Amino acid sequence: MIQVQISEPEDEVLPDAKSPLIPIVLCLFAAMGGFVFGYDTGTISGFINLPVFLEKFGQYSDVTHKYYFSNVRSGLIIAIFSVGCFGGTHVGAELADRIGRRIGIMIATGIYIIGILIQITAMDKWYQYFVGRIVAGVAVGALSVLVPMFQSEASPKNIRGALVSSFQLFITLGIFVGYCVTFGTKDRPDTGSYRIPLGLSFLWALILIIGMVAMPESPRYLVSKDRIEDARRSVARTNKVPIDDPFVDAEVEEIQQNINFERLAGKASWGELVTGQPRIFYRLWVGIFIQIFQQLCGANYFFYYGTSIFQAVGMEDSFATSMIFGAVNFLSTFAGIYNVEKFGRRNTLIVGAAVMFACFLVFSTLGFNNLYPGGNTHLDSVKPVGNAMIFLTCLFIAAFAASWAPICYVVVSETYPLRIKSKGMAIATSGNWFANFLISFFTPFITHDIGFKYGYVFTGCCAAAGIFVYFFVPETKGLTLEQVDEMYESGVKPWLSSSWVPSVKPHHSTINDPSAHSYEKNEIHHEPIV
């Protein structure tokens, strides 16, 4: 048994914590990593329906005398991005541990630029475009680990959920901007119809790199590498105080104590994800399933293939319809940022799953009973059904954006202790990309065979997601990352976790609580650690 006691003088009073404005700005700049992913999603869904794009990378039909994408080719072009992302999550974990969160984000963005360059220079070889999407996917997969990790370590605890949710907010903004740019170029008769949207990707990457150059590294990472003076400078820069300010001393001391305690259990390894305490293996699977269910709820069914779906129900301009979806998605994410701190993680996820279940159930029933698998644009009676399905899609996207879209990243970023966070987040996030690949690749085949009955699969997944959260996901709202460890160690039932009270009162700081004015005496007992 290992027992650790940490005490603070009762009469020590430290300066008022500084404004969280700087951490907010840092997290929003880092969230541009989500924007580049969203922008790719918003543009590729339109590209596969552009005549010029089809002519360059599609197949020619001797029957219709038109260019088209086979289910295999369209599935590969869209889904291969997710394969790259799957591998990129592990690249992100290695970058985070070896060279830091900040530099890791910059390197991943550089890889993204290379991927876009390969795509934009492709003339008529679809496999070159294919390779470019793999490379860009590796970068985005790395960013999907690095950015939430950086944000969770730089955020005050009382707004940590909202700031980590900004990663998803920027994904939705990227999707919307991607839809809008593609809508603006879709009528061009030349390759500018898809190369202009691709070229803008360089701008988004440049903004992210410039922003990261100006940012300090995560002080938690710096302390973990024994770069104490660098950590002090990082805290001072973040809070706009002199490096010898007592506030900086307290902040760094707290981080040191937390990391020193974690080191008592030895160096983190991949095997510790199975054997580590407290309940690391359980927490690993919580993160994996949260990420998988975020995909299996079915949102990317609309985001990747929305243009094609609503061409099938007779919409005259399915590109405009996709823009509406993108706007609903972006605006509703603000509700998600509010919900995560107001109502907590569990309640928001469960209610969101229930609303999405109802939407998909009615959507699928309308489509199955009123439309042919490939749609029917000739009957006037299809129009009201199409309008109703668009409304249900908007309602579904609003529910998704206000719940599962942002909050899954919050839950995963809060689930793992610092010493294994990069590895845990990498594996959990790779589950997201694996499920993303399954949906993006197999959707064309499944919809071709069973049409709108495919929606019943997502209906069942939404129900399963809500049930999973109720029985397995504890509430982490308002807890420091150290208190989350204590909660898992206590073995509290997830459905009772909202009322759980930690015995550990952390040091107060901008990382833990920017509104605190003093430090209280604390005694921390941890036992046992295996």
TrEMBL record:
Gene3D superfamilies on file: MFS general substrate transporter like domains
Keyword set, alphabetical order: Membrane, Sugar transport, Transmembrane, Transmembrane helix, Transport
Membrane-protein topology: Multi-pass membrane protein
One term under GO cellular component: plasma membrane
InterPro entries, sorted: MFS_dom (IPR020846), MFS_sugar_transport-like (IPR005828), MFS_Sugar_Transporters (IPR050360), MFS_trans_sf (IPR036259), Sugar/inositol_transpt (IPR003663), Sugar_transporter_CS (IPR005829)
Transmembrane segments: 21-39, 76-96, 103-120, 126-150, 162-184, 196-215, 284-306, 318-337, 349-368, 388-412, 424-442, 454-473
Short name of any one Pfam family annotated for the protein: Sugar_tr
Localisation per UniProt entry: Membrane
Major facilitator superfamily (MFS) profile domain sequence ranges: 26-477
Region (Disordered): 507-530
Coiled coil: none
Protein name: General substrate transporter
Source lineage: Eukaryota, Fungi, Dikarya, Ascomycota, Saccharomycotina
